[in-house]
Amino acid sequence: MKQAFELTVNGGHVRVETHPDTSLLHVLREELDLKGSRFGCGVGLCGACFVQLDGQVVASCDTPIWSAAGKTVVTVEGLAPGDELHPVQRAFLDEQAAQCGYCISGILVSAATLLARNPAPDEQAVVEALDRNLCRCGVQRRVVRAVLAAAEVTE
Ligand code: FES
Ligand code: FES
């Protein structure tokens, strides 16, 4: 049976009516039209759907909407303040750190979360922070370079 859930998404108050076990990813993409978070594996193993939930990186495919109720969600669409790009988004463009791009939304969320916690990570810290983000195109080297470049700007 459908229920109403309220949460904050990218700074805005949202109310959705859906089954409690509906995934947060489904709500974001299909109810709120936020298509940046991607469906990859659907079981929390690839990182394509990663978002921030109360500041922590979570797999939105594996997060039922009931457990996100009353919380604050930030998706890739909400990383940048206003019309400006977030420093990691700018650095990914500068470093051309994407190929097909399918994995990149989740990687940007993980990278931005890392920099919020640790503005000056070393390479090892970046690699560890992105450990759960898979990329089948093999752009990991460029991704790590871009995150380190973004750190230099945000430090
Ligand atoms: S689609 Fe959510 S972790 Fe893969
Ligand atoms: S750029 Fe294609 S999966 Fe990562």
Number of strands: 5
- Counting copies of identical and different chains, the oligomeric state is single chain
How many distinct helices? 6
- Classify the beta-strand content into a percent band: 15-25%
Order of helices and strands: EEHEEHEHHHH
> In terms of per-residue confidence, which ranges show pLDDT below 50 for 5 or more consecutive residues?
none
Q: Which architecture of the largest domain per CATH? A: Roll
Radius of gyration: 15 Å
SS content category: alpha+beta
What is the total domain count? 2
Bound molecules: FE2/S2 (inorganic) cluster
Overall mean pLDDT stands at 96
Query: How far apart, in Å, are the first and last alpha carbons?
Result: 48 Å
The biggest beta sheet, please? 5 strands, mixed
Lateral arrangement of strands in the main beta sheet: 2-1-5-3-4
